[in-house]
Each structure stands twice: as structure tokens, then as C-alpha cells.
Amino acid sequence: MSTAPRPTILTAAFSARQIAASAQLAGIDALAVDFFGDLDLRDHARKSEVLRGHYPDGFSSEALIAALERLAEGEEPLGFVYGAGFEDRPELLEAIAERWPILGTDPATARRLKDPEAIAAICNDAGIAHPEIRRTRPGDPAKWLSKKIGGSGGSHVVRGDAPPSPDRYYQRFVVGERISMAFVAAGSRYACLGYSRQWADPSQDEPYRYGGAVGPVPVAADADAAMRRDVAGILDRLPLTGLCSADFVVGDDAPVLLEVNARPGATLDVFEDPAQPLIALHLAAVRGELPSRGAGTTGDVRASGLAWADRPLGVPAGFQWPDWTRDRSHPPTRFAAGEPICTIVAAGETAETAERLFHARTRRIGD
């Protein structure tokens, strides 16, 4: 009796481990490309390749397509799932789409989603609170941020006194708590998967560098209703496909939408659910199907984020990574100051206990 082959996807991201692990939970083989080739990726992906690059810069078009073609040789992948690393290069997604189906939001929509003026216009049309943006240097730079168009991870965000550049824009700073809604979209319809609270891990040169997230976290009923309306307003005007996230600032007034990301993101570790693997939800949404209930909302609260090297750090041969680390490099290896060491995960009964444990583990891994 023959066994049907497992379905297969191609995927690429700065770190493809989360997508590959979720695919494995869903009974799907991942053929993965990322910047690190960590031990975990080898455990979760059926085949993988490493493209050395400078995080958080994106992929080289020719090198990535060549790597994907090597991985796809002799395979019949369903298509390509992209993660972080494509926000500022929709033309690369277009080139990939000429070879394999894009399993997610199409390149043209991804391009529009990362156009700051286009999103500001959509928010204005939908009545969504969104920070003021501009291209010229502001007269009161302390109240503004400078962001790279299509940037991700927070490392590209600097203070508003940065000089103007064709690939950057200014966004007025908004005071409040960073709350992100994870959702899965099928065109103009969507299902909310939960909320996470995010924090930065600043360095001298990168004051808004991504630190981590904890979730699911509760939000007030009025804020929840407002954020759901805002996401619906975006999708009515710009339909998306698959796993997405919407980043808000929640303060004393109505939530303010900062940006929408139309791809599996950093909170996969937070919301992953073996009973409903997130990549299974993503692929179902590509077929137009949405879950009847949220995913990843039962059990302990989870925190996940990056441990950054604040000084040159060496990992000796034979080093055993703690079981609460992910994205583990093969020892011996070295990390320069400012490089990510690994991902740290933690869980607790509340967001506060999970986050506290996360920070304790982050300090420990950096010692």
C-alpha cells in the first residue's frame, strides 16, 4: 500500500525556522532559505539553504531564486510562502511569482501595503487613526521618527532628526503601548487570532530595535472593537491573504494604526497551536477558508523575542543551548556586538510572569 507524499512548500525569510516548524506541525514539508541556517531549521525543514546576508537587509534576487530552484528540483511544491525580508522588495516577489504560486498576499498588494502615502490615504478614507507622515525634515524632530520604507524589525527606525532620504519617511511619534493584532485574512474577511504586547531592546545606534512580544494579552472592549473595525476597514480597501499582523499604539485615545504586515511574523512562537498550526491556517486562507475560532488562545501566555549581543560574544565548541532557546547556531561560533544571538521563549500564567522570565533568560544567555 503506497503512502501519498506529504505536501511541500517553498519558503524564505530572514529566519525561516518558525514557518518550517509550523509547517511540520501541519504535516507539510518545508524547503527553506534563510540567512542563518540554524540547528533548528535543519530539524524542521526537509531541505534548506543558507544565504549569508546582513540582517536586517533583504535578500539578493538572483541568489535567492537560484537557491529556491535548487531546493525545488525534483519536487512539486504547492508554492512559495514568504516571511520577513521582502517588505522593501516586491519586485523580488514578482520574480518568484513567475516560477511558483505565491501562497499569501500577492506582490502588487504587498507593494501598495508598504507605500506610506498609499496606507495613509487608505486610513484617511476609512476613518482610521494613523500617525501623520511626511517626506521633508520636520521642524520639531523630537516629535517624529524616521523610518525606512518597507523596513522591518525596528532596527531601521531612528529619531526624527535623521536627514531625509528617498527610501525613508517621517512619521509622527505616538505615545502609548505597542499592541499587535495577529489575524488571518481571506480577501476582505478575516479572523482575529489574538493580541500581543511588544517591546523594544534599544541600542545606541538602534533605539527602536525589536525586543520581543508576549501574548495573548487582553485588551479593553472598546480598544478591541476599534482595532477590529480598523483591520476590517483596511481589508475592505486592500484585501490580503494569509497570516498578517496589524501594529497599533494604544494610549488614552483611540488606538492608532502604525502598519500592517501581510506575512507570517515574529509572533508565530506566541500564537502557535498544535491543534491549529498557523501555516495550516495560512494555506487554508489562500483557499478562501477561515478558522471558526481563534488560534493560540488557550494555555499559558507566551513570550518570544531576540537576545542581542551587547559586546563580541563567543560560543565554544560543545556548548549546549538551553531548551528555552530557538534559532540556535552551530557551535563554535561568534557574534559581533549588535547581532542577534538567538530567540528566547518563555511561558507563564500571566503576561507579566512570562515577560519577566523572558528577560531573565535573555540576561542569562548574554552573560
Write the layout of secondary structure elements.
Blueprint: E1 8-12, H1 17-25, E2 29-34, H2 39-44, E3 47-50, H3 61-72, E4 80-82, H4 90-97, H5 107-113, H6 116-126, E5 133-134, E6 144-148, E7 158-159, E8 168-172, E9 177-187, E10 189-200, E11 210-215, H7 221-237, E12 240-250, E13 256-261, H8 268-271, H9 278-286, E14 301-308, E15 313-315, E16 325-326, E17 333-335, E18 340-348, H10 351-366
Parallel strand pairs: 1-2, 1-4, 2-3
Antiparallel strand pairs: 5-8, 6-7, 6-8, 9-10, 9-12, 10-11, 11-14, 12-13, 14-18, 15-17, 16-18
Helix pairs in contact: 4-5
Tell me briefly what this model is.
The chain is built from 10 helices and 18 strands. It is of the alpha+beta class.
Task: Give your account of this protein's structure.
- The mean pLDDT is 93.
- The protein is globular.
- The longest helix is centred in the middle third of the chain and has 17 residues, at 221-237.
- The chain is built from 10 helices and 18 strands.
- An 8-stranded antiparallel beta sheet has the order 13-12-9-10-11-14-18-16. Strands 3-2-1-4 form a 4-stranded parallel beta sheet, sandwiched between helices. Strands 5-8-6-7 form a 4-stranded antiparallel beta sheet, with helices on one face.
- With 367 residues, the chain is of the alpha+beta class.
- The relative contact order is 0.13.
- It has helices at residues 17-25, 39-44, 61-72, 90-97, 107-113, 116-126, 221-237, 268-271, 278-286, 351-366, and strands spanning 8-12, 29-34, 47-50, 80-82, 133-134, 144-148, 158-159, 168-172, 177-187, 189-200, 210-215, 240-250, 256-261, 301-308, 313-315, 325-326, 333-335, 340-348.
